Amino acid sequence: MKKVLVLAEVRDGQLRNVSLEALAAAQALAEGGEVVAAVFGADAAAHAQALGQHGASLVYTSDHSALAQYTADAYTQALTQIIELAGPDAVVLGHTAIGRDVAPRVAARLGYGLVSDVTGLEAGPVFVRPIYAGKAFQQRKFVDGKIFITIRPNNIAVGAADPAKTATVVPVELDIKDLRSIVKDVVRKTSGKVDLSEAKVIVSGGRGVKSAEGFKTLYELADVLGAAVGASRGACDADYCDYSMQIGQTGKVVTPDLYIACGISGAIQHLAGMSSSKVIVAINKDPEAPIFQVADYGIVGDLFEVVPLLTAEFKKV
Ligand code: FAD
Questions:
Q1: Residue 29 contacts by C-beta under 8 Å, 6 or more apart in sequence?
Q2: How confident is the model at residue 169 (pLDDT cuts 50, 70, 90)?
Q3: What pLDDT score does 193 carry?
Q4: Tens digit of pLDDT for each residue in 77-128?
Q5: How far is CA 308 from CA 37, 159, 212, 219, 314, in A?
Q6: Which residues pair with 106 in a beta bridge?
């Protein structure tokens, strides 16, 4: 492909790691062609250096006030205008709340194709993506036309930053109008210090944790590991934790390097959100629990005995 555009995302002033993964995917797609990026927000230009060091030759920026917080209306207009300006053959975004929302809108507007939730790229290019709630993987070969892809966080390796590389920064005057919604305030419910969708390690609890108090045991292990805390829907339904922590078919889809499932039975809807984790450790007192069928390591035991032991051991490292 001659030119590939990446829409980079910034959260709490930080460039999201999935945007660097998108740049790595864009370089693989471009096969020596041009990789450019776009980034929005008041401090957009501040991220151009990192984007340049990870492979973007040019970064379109806009500090338009309508883009300070994501709205479908404003981002659809902005991304459409950037694409009309840049004329890329492919557009790569993270398969995040923003990517999932804006990619199909702009793709439909501009007549681009869309392959979503890509977990791997092969020569061709061929896009690999999970189907049937993660039970199988589909390979979709690109034939012709222009295309959007969204990539699932934590699946594409990010190369090291090259300090010798720089990007040309191009501030763009965007014409954003007739907005049907504006964001006045964002109240974020977080599961802890680490963002669940990009976490490398997740400690997750189910109904077996038995109470909100019981989750403290999981937070202690997560603190030692620098992990995020997630949950099954069973735990969320029982009010042990917030729904923003739910992992699964109707929750977040995660691909950490390590997923520690504590007191989670392993229902198909939960597996849909975590089964492509690189290493799965299951702690369950029922040796027949289905979670053991997907686990790389299984510990049959009471989580209230096993988790504190793990925490104590990891503290020593
Ligand atoms: P349970 O199935 O009750 O399992 C609890 C486990 O804890 C058991 O295996 C038990 O042996 C173990 N246990 C108990 N005490 C201890 C202890 N002291 N130490 C160790 N182990 C212990 N679920 C999701 O998670 N995510 C989703 O996105 C999701 N979406 C759904 C969508 C639909 C349309 C439907 C119908 C269901 C969905 N579900 C989802 C619900 C799913 O079917 C299960 O009901 C849910 O995942 C069960 O949660 P659980 O494993 O925590 O609870």
A1: 1, 4, 90, 92, 121, 125, 149
A2: very high
A3: 64
A4: 999 999 999 999 999 999 999 999 999 999 999 999 999 999 999 998 999 9
A5: 45, 36, 16, 11, 10
A6: none
Identify the helix (H) or strand (E) that includes residue 305. helix 303-316
- What is the end-to-end Cα distance of the chain in Å, rounded? 46
DSSP structure class, residue 259 = E
> What ipTM goes with this model?
0.99
126: left (phi over 0), alpha (psi -120 to 50) or beta: beta
**From the CA of 206, how far away is ligand 1's center (Å)?**
6
Q: Give the burial class of 14: count Cβ atoms within 10 A of its Cβ; 0-12 exposed, 13-18 middle, 19 or more buried.
A: exposed
- Residues contacting ligand 1 via CB (< 6 Å): 206-208, 232-235, 246, 248-251, 263-265, 267, 269-270, 273, 283-286, 289, 302-304
Helix (H, G, I), strand (E, B) or coil at 119: coil
**Structural tokens at position 296:** 């790389």
Cα dihedral sign for 259, 264, 270, 275?
positive
**Ligand 1: centre distance to CA 122 (Å):** 35
pTM of the complete model: 0.85
With tokens 């709205």, the residue in question is 71
Reported as type and span, the H/E element at residue 76 is helix 72-86
